[in-house]
User: What shape does this take?
Amino acid sequence: MTVVHSASDTFAKQLGIRHPVICGPMYPCSNPELVAAVSDAGAIGVLQPVSLTYV
Assistant: This one.
């Protein structure tokens, strides 16, 4: 039997995450609690830089 891996499976495996999802920085709701929750769930959480005030 041949096993086919999707690009998202390969991406997740290479990064050591469970879900190929990135929660990008969103002003003003991207706080440390959101980033921690996303990361704890097995995805990638990105914290917004403090210096970025306007998007």
